[in-house]
Amino acid sequence: MIENIKSRAKELKKQIITVYLAYMHKDVKWYKKAFLLLILVYAASPIDLIPDFIPVLGLLDDIVLIPLGVIIAIKIIPQSVWEECKANSENGFSIENKYKKMGATMIALIWIAALVLLINGFK
Questions:
Q1: How far apart are the first and last CA of the chain?
Q2: Is the model's pLDDT at 32 over the cut of 90?
Q3: In total, how many domains does the chain have?
Q4: By CB neighbour count within 10 A (0-12 exposed, 13-18 middle, 19+ buried), where does 103 fall?
Q5: Containing structural domain, residue 85
């Protein structure tokens, strides 16, 4: 079972790299790139929308949201572009640090906004 989870995690990592390469591809339209950027930023973020220490829900975002984003990406990206990017991702590639920082910032802003709304709701 652990090996199965490890292999799925490795495959998901390859798919995120493929999403990144598709994001950088010239044949993908800007509005599709915007969605791909959201997937990249969330996947690369060191901060989760739902913290992992919350039982079940903490892991749910990693298990559901990221694969769901990848599935949607596969559907919206032209098949030829996806196959080209998938082949390129096999050569080894890592997501740049700027996406990790953007992801952390995005998640932090969501939490700050939620806290502000919560605090203002008690006044």
A1: 50
A2: yes
A3: 1
A4: buried
A5: 2-121
